[in-house]
Every structure is written in C-alpha cells, then in structure tokens.
Specification:
Layout (H helix, E strand, L loop, with lengths): L2 H9 L9 H15 L7 H15 L12 H11 L5 H20 L3 H17 L17 H36 L4 H9 L1 H14 L2 H13 L3 H8 L3 H26 L4 H23 L2
Length: 290
C-alpha cells in the first residue's frame, strides 16, 4: 500500500483535504527521519500514526502536513510502537522541561520522582481503561510543551490525592510545637476554640472564590508561589501579593467577627489578634482540605 493509502486508512475522508498527499507524506517522512535517524520507525508506520493524528484534529482547515510538528509526531509514534531508543529520545527531547515543571509545583524530591514515574506510566502505558496519553498528541504544538502540561496536571492530582495526609501530619506536628512556646496564646486558643474556628469558617466564606482557590492551591495542594504565577501567567511577585492580600482579608474579617461575638478587653483582643496571625495558615489549610 502507498503512503497515501496507509494515511487515508486512518485519516478517513479528511485526507482528501491534503493536496498532493503522497508527495506531502514522502516529504514529511524525510523531514522526520532527518531529526531521528537512529529510530527504526518505518515510513508506513509513521504515515499510519500521522493519519490518526490528522483525524483526531477534525479540522477541515488543516490541509498542510508541514504545519504540524512532524519530528515530534514521529517520536511520539515511535514511542507508542515500542521502537528501541524512542523513550530515551523522548527523555532527551522533553525531560528538562518536565523536570522544570515539577520543580515549580513540588518541593520534595521524592514527590517529584514519584510524579515523574506516574507521568511515564500515563504517557507511555496508560491503564486497562485508558490508552497512553501520548496517543492524544496531535502535533499542533511542540512535544515538550505538551508533556509539561501533562506533567503539571498529574502533579496537581498527585498533590491533592497523596499530599493531604502528609500535610495534615505536618500541621499537627507544627500545632503541637506551638503549645509550650506561648502560654498566653494557648490559653486564648483553648478558651475561645469554638468561636475561633467558626470565625475562621465564616471569614473563609466571605472572601472571593479566586482567593479561596489560591489559598487551597498553596496551602493544601502545595503549589509554590512561582507555580501559581505560572498557572495564572503572572509574575511570582504578583502571585505573592495575591496570597498576602487573601491572608490579610481573612485576618481582618476574623478580628472583626471575634470583636462582634466576644465581649473582650483590650488585652484579650490583642492575644486573639496574635493568635490569628500565628495560626492563620494552619487553620486555613485544615478548613480548605476537602
């Protein structure tokens, strides 16, 4: 079968949109093979993979194969076919960007290593019910950028599902460590615990949904300030200001609510204000955890 026939068997009717299809496929194969001369991935196999990617786009405006990331599509197809050396080539192509993405989101080397392994499993293997994620790559953008997005999503899911227990343990340890350091604060905390917790809950409900999401990402999911900036496409300093403003809004609302609900003297109110400042991250992370 010709390359055009192989391509059309996967692309279906959309293949008719490509003029001079056979010549375009020969040129695509030559271009991709120049980029990966060591990979024994046949032209026919690449044409078949390219046809599947073309069909997945379902975009009638796509008529020029040369506009796709052909070199990266060739590498993706070789990985999915189990071509020797393809996974190593993928690592050389995408590994640095994946590692940089995980470093922005996860502070622990162990968490980064586990997430990187989970990503490899998802990208190259999949599950019984889910095909390898690499099969969904259609060459519209660079493979390293696509892989960084996949890594980001898996990192956030892993942090949500696995990090909650670890952070709960850390919060408990930190809270225990605070007990003997300031007896006055501990007294205020015990005396007004129920009112304090309810005020925190009400203060959290009073801020915007965006502020709650930012705080949850940072305090519960463990996304760094730099990572939040990347997610929202703002500078790290802007993300830091957003988080600081959210904290200040909660602290101000807390003190207002406590002032309304408790008939306290100046000394006790000062102690509660200090308690809010010392416990705000602990209390918010506990209340924001699903």
């Amino acid at each position: 079968m010709s390359l055009a026939g192989t391509f059309t068997s996967e692309a279906g009717p959309t293949a008719a949109a490509v003029p001079n299809l056979e010549a375009a496929l020969v040129a695509a194969c030559e271009r991709a093979r120049r980029a990966h001369p060591a990979l024994a991935f046949s032209d026919e196999a690449f044409a078949r993979h390219l046809g599947r990617a073309f069909a997945a786009e379902a975009d009638e405006a796509l008529t020029d194969l040369a506009t796709l990331q052909l070199e990266d599509l060739f590498l993706a197809g070789a990985c999915l076919a189990g071509t020797p050396g393809a996974v190593d080539a993928f690592e050389a192509r995408c590994g640095e960007r994946i590692r940089a993405t995980l470093a922005q989101l996860l502070s622990s080397p162990e968490a980064r290593g586990e997430t990187a392994q989970a990503m490899r499993d998802a990208v190259f293997v999949g599950t019984v019910d889910t095909p390898p994620k690499l099969a969904s790559y259609t060459g519209r953008g660079p493979l390293d950028r696509w892989s960084a997005i996949v890594a980001q999503r898996i990192a956030l899911m892993a942090a949500r599902s696995e990090g909650t227990g670890r952070r709960a343990h850390e919060r408990a340890a930190l809270e225990a460590a605070l007990v003997p350091q300031d007896p006055e604060l501990e007294f205020a905390k015990e005396k007004y615990r129920a009112t304090f917790e309810q005020a925190f809950t009400d203060a959290l409900a009073a801020i915007t949904e965006k502020d709650r999401l930012l705080l949850r990402l940072h305090l519960v999911t463990g996304v760094s300030v730099e990572g939040i900036g990347k997610m929202y496409q703002v500078s790290q300093s802007t993300a830091s200001r957003w988080l600081a403003a959210a904290r200040e809004a909660i602290a101000a609302e807390m003190q207002r609510l406590l002032g309304e609900r408790l008939n306290l003297g100046r000394t006790e109110m000062a102690s509660l204000a200090r308690l809010v400042a010392s416990q705000i991250d602990l209390s918010m992370s506990r209340l924001l955890t699903p």
